[in-house]
Design goal:
heterodimer; A: 143 residues; two-stranded parallel sheet; 6 helices; extended; B: alpha+beta; two-stranded antiparallel ribbon; 8 helices
Chain lengths: 143, 245
Amino acid sequence: VSIGIGDSPFKQPALFTRRVLYNLYPGVADPTPWETFLARNRTPPYISSEPDVLHRRLGPRSYLVLATDGLSELFDGAGRADMVAEWARCVAEAAKDGENENLALRLLRHALGGEDLVSISQMITLDMESPWMDDTTIIVQAL
Amino acid sequence: MPIIVQESLHKVIPGPGAPMPSPEVVRDMLSHGITAFDDAIAGDVLELFPGGLASLPSRTDEEIQAVVNDFTGPSAGANYQKARLCLYGTTALVALVDPAHENLWVANLGDCEAGMPPISLFFLLFFTFFFRSCAGPPRLTPPISACNARRRRPAPTSSRGAQLIAQRHQPRGNRTCPARSPGRAGKRDEWPRARHDRPLPMYVSRPHPHRFRVDFKRDTTITGSFIFLPFFSPIHLGFLSHTCQ
């Protein structure tokens, strides 16, 4: 089951979308894509908003990295443990450079190619008709 | 702290002298708080129509439009913003630490991840902060840093150009709430605007309106910097990093 906040057409009966959202400015010029789904919207919700909540006992001081899947997709091919270890190495190196260092930005830069200007240029200036990189938000929190 | 978490916490910890609830209670509180927040998105819209969902079949399109497209009415677009929220979806990732720094809860809703690497990988950091804490008074607010990069779709007339927005900021208050990147909300979300030829997108993430005002100014700045350095994205990235120090 997919989970997320919002996306009410997938959580409310089809009546809600057809009567309220169809009437929302600027309106729906072609409802065909919507109706393809709404015709099958019999027993909503199809997206859950119940989060997966984990509890952990904290040890000595550490860092917590919070990121959207845009970051993990940049480590495509790496195992999850290897990916987190890579995050740790990058954040640890960045933290050594000073208190005012933006650890999250350093991690983003590292994921895009780090000091390899060719790699990072390929990610940033890639010329494609469709998006090639997901939205990426990173927060690094000292605990 | 996100308001939804704060309000839920007040229910299980009414005052400073209240005992610390068990981890299971806090876990359920986080889960309930996020679920209630999501329920309110469509609920706020249905409340605009007395009788709720059951009343919709008996209402005319004109009547519904007058309620949700309230650009010029006394509500000044408040209903419109509520209804627009229903169209889009996002993820949420909330971390909560108790004052004693003994417990961590992470609520994960979808396309996001939280990682707390093994402490052995952080031994250098540990010593850094150990000596720092010995050198001066402990900091009340742990250091936090954040950034985001927003997916950009090339403009039809542009064959090349900077496709990435990377930005640095020091979040405060609700701005620490993890959410999808705000993007260029200032320009894109202006209304009313010309009628689209295409149908509304079915599954596009947009920023939460609570972040709208905060992010508008910052994104304007970022967009402006792109005007001056449109062709050297790596330099631009470094430029942002430098100027935001």
